[in-house]
Each structure stands twice: as C-alpha cells, then as structure tokens.
C-alpha cells in the first residue's frame, strides 16, 4: 500500500507539473495568436498606399501602358520620360540632351527598344532622320523637347513626325516646347501631344515658353 501510495503521489505531482507546463504554453500561444492579427493589420494599410504607375492621377485600365513625358524647362532642367513606371530618359539617368529626345517602345510588350538624343541647334539632323526612318511597325514613339528643338528642323523630319501622328511638328521652331507620343502605323492624329510656341509676349521664362507635361494611358497593341 505504501509503495503504491507513493507512486500515486508521484503520478499526481507529475500530472500537476505537466498540466502547469501545458497551460503556460497554451496561454502564451494564445497571447501570440492575439498579437498576430494586430501585427497583420499593418499589411492592408500598407497595400492601400499603392502608387499609380508613373505617378498618374488614376491608374490605367488593363491592356494600357501608363506614360508621362515632361519637356525640358528653358535650357536649365532636362526633360524626362516615364513608361510603365520606368524612368527611361531623364537628367538623373544622364541620357537626355538639348534638342529632341526620342524613345522607341514595342507597342505590344512595352519593351524599350531604342533611345536617342538629337542636338537640333548645332547637330547634324541626318542622325534624327536615320533614327526615325528605321522605326519598326507597331512601335510607340515618345518625344520631349529641351531648349531648342527647331533650328536644324527640316521638311523631311517634319514629314516623319507627321506620319507618326503629330499635328505640331510642321510648325516646330526655335525654342518651342513640345511633348508627343505617336506610333509607327497610326492612321489618325495622335491625341497625345502638347505644343507651346516660343513667344516673348507669353513666355514663362526669359526666352523660353513654359515646360509641358503629358501623361496618359496608351492602348497596348494586341493582335
Ligand atoms: C515586339 O514584341 C513582339 C512580341 O514579343 C514581337 O513579336 C515583335 O517582333 C516586337 N517588335 C519589335 C520591333 O521589337
């Protein structure tokens, strides 16, 4: 009896200790599960602060590319181009220059194909003619002016931009501001274009009109 009584006592104490350990773990586990949702609450708040591509005022629908083009400001700040949230040309990327800055993008994939900066004040306009003459079909063409896009402008280049859907290339001149998005096989005029003539009466800067910004959603070319 004594031995079995001792065994019962040991078993009882063991059971108490086991229960205490279990309850302690169980309670701290519960504390963790209470804490976890509180921690998870932070995640939806962060995803609510989603920025639109290129900082557009509202997001583009599916099968549209977001873009934003800014011309240069006078001869001081270079132009910039954003396409599908990627800054493809800008002073920070150090790939813009005075004159005309042109980027070619695959209209189906949105992949950037080529970029070029063409000095239209003292450069040779034949480089821009060659660049524009080699554009493959279904290519989007983004253009931003900086300082002077007009001095070396010629009829051949005006015609090439006209064929890409430009309404203003025909009157582009010395120190005008111009931003444009066109396409190789555009049948109509592009809706994506802004133009400001250099006019001493209305110029924002001394010698230059205000910089221009153009943003929007351009439909992806689907076959
Ligand atoms: C554009 O992308 C499509 C799909 O990948 C491809 O078939 C076409 O050749 C590309 N065009 C150019 C000019 O890269």
Give a structural overview.
It contains four helices and nine strands; from the N terminus they run ααβββββαβαβββ. The chain is an alpha+beta fold and 223 residues long. The protein folds into two domains: 2-41; 53-219, no CATH class. The strands form two sheets. It has a five-stranded antiparallel β-sheet with strand order 5-4-6-7-8, covered by helices on one side. Helix 3 runs parallel beside helix 4. The mean pLDDT is 87. It binds 2-acetamido-2-deoxy-beta-D-glucopyranose. 2-acetamido-2-deoxy-beta-D-glucopyranose is lined by residues 106, 108-109, 113, 136, 139.
List the helices and strands and how they pair.
Elements: H1 2-40, H2 42-48, E1 64-70, E2 80-83, E3 86-89, E4 99-106, E5 112-118, H3 126-133, E6 139-146, H4 155-163, E7 177-183, E8 193-196, E9 213-219
Antiparallel strand pairs: 1-2, 1-9, 2-3, 4-5, 4-6, 6-7, 7-8
Helix pairs in contact: 3-4
This protein binds 2-acetamido-2-deoxy-beta-D-glucopyranose (NAG).
Helix content: 25-40%
Strand adjacency order, main sheet = 5-4-6-7-8
The fraction of residues in strands falls at 25-35%
User: What is the number of E strands?
Assistant: 9
Shape: elongated
Return residue spans where pLDDT drops below 50 for at least 5 consecutive residues. none
Q: How much is the radius of gyration in Å?
A: 32 Å
Total domain units: 2
Which molecules are bound besides the chains?
A: 2-acetamido-2-deoxy-beta-D-glucopyranose
Mean pLDDT: 87
Major beta sheet summary:
5 strands, antiparallel
Determine the N-to-C terminus distance.
Answer: 92 Å
- Write down the secondary-structure element order: HHEEEEEHEHEEE
Helical/strand content category: alpha+beta
Number of helices: 4
């Amino acid at each position: 009896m004594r031995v079995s009584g001792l065994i019962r006592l040991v078993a009882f104490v063991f059971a108490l200790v086991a229960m205490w350990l279990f309850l302690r773990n169980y309670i701290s586990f519960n504390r963790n599960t209470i804490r976890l949702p509180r921690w998870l609450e932070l995640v939806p708040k962060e995803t609510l602060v989603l920025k639109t591509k290129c900082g557009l005022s509202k997001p583009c629908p599916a099968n549209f590319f977001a873009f934003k083009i800014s011309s240069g400001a006078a001869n001081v700040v270079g132009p910039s181009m954003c396409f599908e949230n990627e800054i493809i040309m800008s002073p920070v990327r150090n790939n813009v220059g005075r004159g005309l800055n042109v980027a070619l993008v695959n209209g189906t994939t949105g992949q950037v194909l080529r970029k070029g900066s063409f000095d239209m004040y003292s450069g040779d306009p034949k480089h821009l003619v060659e660049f524009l003459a080699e554009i493959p079909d279904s290519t989007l063409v983004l253009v931003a002016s900086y300082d002077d896009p007009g001095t070396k402008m010629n009829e051949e280049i005006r015609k090439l931009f006209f064929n890409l859907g430009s309404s203003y290339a025909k009157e582009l001149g010395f120190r005008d501001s111009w931003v444009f998005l066109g396409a190789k096989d555009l049948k109509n005029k592009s809706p994506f274009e802004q133009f400001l003539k250099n006019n001493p009466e209305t110029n924002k800067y001394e010698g230059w009109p205000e910089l221009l910004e153009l943003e929007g959603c351009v439909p992806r070319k689907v076959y």
